[in-house]
Amino acid sequence: MYSRRITRFSGVASCAFFAAGAFAQEDPDRTPVAEFKDGFTLEQVESYRSQFNIPELLKGGDTSVWWSQRTSELHNTAHLPVQVPVMPLEENIMPEIGEITADTKNFGTLSLNDWLVHPGSYAKGIIVIHEGKVVFEEYPALNPWDAHLWMSTAKPLTSLVIDKLIEEGKITDQQTVGELMPDWAATDWADIKVIDILDMTPGMNSEENDETRADPDSIAIRTFNAEFGFQYNRRNETVPEVLMDAESVRNPGEKFEYGSPTTEMLVLIAEAVGQEPWAQLLDKYVWSKVGAEGPLMVHMSPDGTAAAHGVVSSRLRVLARFGMLYTPSWDKTATEQVVTPEILARIRDGVRGHEFYMNGFDGPAFLDRLNDDTMISNARQWDAIWPDGDMWKAGLQSQALYVSPDKDLVIAFFSTNVPDDSFHRYLRPIATSDLFD
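Given the sequence above, the corresponding structure tokens read:
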């Protein structure tokens, strides 16, 4: 099934991360990512384990590549197996997708094909699915069966679980944290509504940006330390302990302030309402219905909190199948309709407006990342919603999930690129091309 596309790039040992044209952005200290396609040597693994710390992982170098492809070897893991017969995806390959161009940040205008093999792109894999059929799939630096970190493309998993609880009448998005979790009544989260957590506007100091990632005392870094078992002030904290320590800095709803700690609040809310571990809720409501090629792995902190904001891994096709749940072709990947029209409407109709989107760090950053300013805003853990109803979620180090429900289109990719996130600039050109009209 995969053989033609597996071997296409087998001789391209120079295929690393984001780049093209010149070698200006190629890091001489990095190993070309294609060289890891056959695994890691014992010497490499010993070296990466000795460098396993938050700054090193966020940097996007070789240690990050190893972590992103061997995550279950490093974290407690909830293994969500395939529980229904695998639903094979038909193929109708459209080579012309590879000729679509984008203006990259550092290497000029490149076709997607050229981007994938450029030594500075650090691209690992991309898949495009239209009407339930695979129309483009390339693996320049990954095997189709390899698990890879989703990073923050996982965040919509948390909103979907909340929406399934809403469907069952167990919660509304207008309820507050204090109403749903009485133990949190004395915290600054108490009066924050679920909808403001879903939309990344709680007004708390849980924001995640360049400044907070560089601050060891920030709620963001303390959350990551708790998840990874690293100490803060000579003690190990739990994720709930850190989040309880967060403080209000403005009224909720005022500003788009993206943050993984905010997403983790959705995990704790879902567990409090559903009275089951979060991974079990995800399995019950979502994953047990999906006929994927392989499992979904939810990685957890030492205290057992699912790091659902981004420490989730699977094959690339599995990520794409999650996107298919939001399309008319859901029945080609699942035994029942998980994402109902009502859930989809809450996402697409719930945007707060472009002015809100731009009032913060991430709105302008997302515009630059996509080289596009036509989106309306974010909503329910998705990073951008466009007037045509298309939805996009990005992940750290250049992962992505793009869904066009109206065009029945899904695009997903994996990579490990921090300095140049131009991979995202191919998404709208692909989706808005005339290939899917």
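The longest strand covers residues 123-130. Try to locate this feature in the token string yourself.
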